[in-house]
Design a protein that fits this description.
Strand content: over 45%
Distance between the termini: 9 Å
Oligomer: single chain
Number of strands: 7
CATH superfamily: Monooxygenase component MmoB/DmpM
Largest sheet: 4 strands, antiparallel
Number of helices: 3
CATH architecture: Alpha-Beta Complex
């Protein structure tokens, strides 16, 4: 399972919301984090989140079972290992 951890603060809520709209992606909570999980790649479109660049580039708190292959002004993509 490919998991992306995002701190649960108001600024990051749109990241979890947009991620959860994709097929096969589950969003849950673990302590103070959103856990965004999938057996496939997790792809989050920055513009769809409405996040400004400073929030976008600071939203990732951790990974498990995956690696970031894209994190630019357009999207965040985490592929399973």
């Amino acid at each position: 399972m490919n998991r992306l951890f995002v701190l649960d603060v108001p600024e990051n809520t749109p990241v979890a919301k947009v991620a959860g709209q994709a097929d096969g992606v589950l969003v849950d909570k673990l302590g103070p984090y959103f856990v965004i999980a999938s057996d496939r790649s997790i792809v989050i479109d920055r513009r769809a989140t409405g996040c400004r660049h400073a929030v976008w580039y600071s939203c990732v708190a951790g990974l498990a079972g995956g690696r970031i292959v894209q994190w630019d002004k357009d999207a965040l993509r985490v592929d399973p290992r």
